[in-house]
Write a structure and sequence with these properties.
Order of helices and strands: EEHEEEHEHEHEHEH
Number of strands: 9
Distance between the termini: 44 Å
Catalytic activity: S-hexadecanoyl-L-cysteinyl-[protein] + H2O = L-cysteinyl-[protein] + hexadecanoate + H(+)
Radius of gyration: 16 Å
Keywords: Acetylation, Cytoplasm, Hydrolase
Low-confidence stretches: none
Family: Belongs to the AB hydrolase superfamily. AB hydrolase 2 family.
Number of helices: 6
Strand content: 15-25%
Mean pLDDT: 96
Pfam families: Abhydrolase_2
Structural class: alpha/beta
CATH class: Alpha Beta
EC number: 3.1.2.22
Oligomer: single chain
Number of domains: 1
Length: about 230
Amino acid sequence: MAAPAGLRRSVVSPAGRHTASLIFLHGSGDTGQGARAWIKHLLKQDMAFQHIKVIYPTAPARPYTPMKGAFSTVWFDRYKISNDCPEHIESIDSMCRGLTDLINDEIKNGIAKNRILIGGFSMGGGMAMHLAYRFHQDLAGVFALSSFLNNDSAVYQALKRNESVLPELFQCHGTADELVLYSWGEETNKMLKSLGVSTSLHSFPNLNHELSRPEIEKLKTWIVKKLPVEA
């Protein structure tokens, strides 16, 4: 599939002067608006900042193999939801091009690349790791919530050849996750750390494949640390 021309997006504008941007990628079958609403429900308000624009893009609908080819809003296709199968690299790379356009839109708006964070929930976090560690190693950081990379991921292959300073990874995962196992997130974290990524993995006991308020509060603290207010 060709990269989409202009992804639909839901945006939370900064309260003050816009000096940084955050791109949050939803999980499979969701939308940008849906991810924003979920976080708003947990926090009882939008995830908003004085200086950071928060962008929730929506993946275009495409056939999704784990749903027997039914159309779903997914960032890429998978052969199955497992860490021990090959990646559907064609669909991943196509979406990397579409999301690069989104990053470039922010740069055209005067935001420096090292003032842009990208991450997401589940598949969104996996997509963010591909985008940052293979194509945009000068971003401010990456976050992955309940996410994983396949054991033979193209991300690992790219980092084996890398000599650049890499964006920090902030990871969260529920220990009771039955869809994306906690051990998959752990393995992803260990592998990236061994390849030179500065990583943190925050575990949330009894949390299944979902977001929680303590998790989002912890994420917000990290976001402001990585994208501080400019003097």
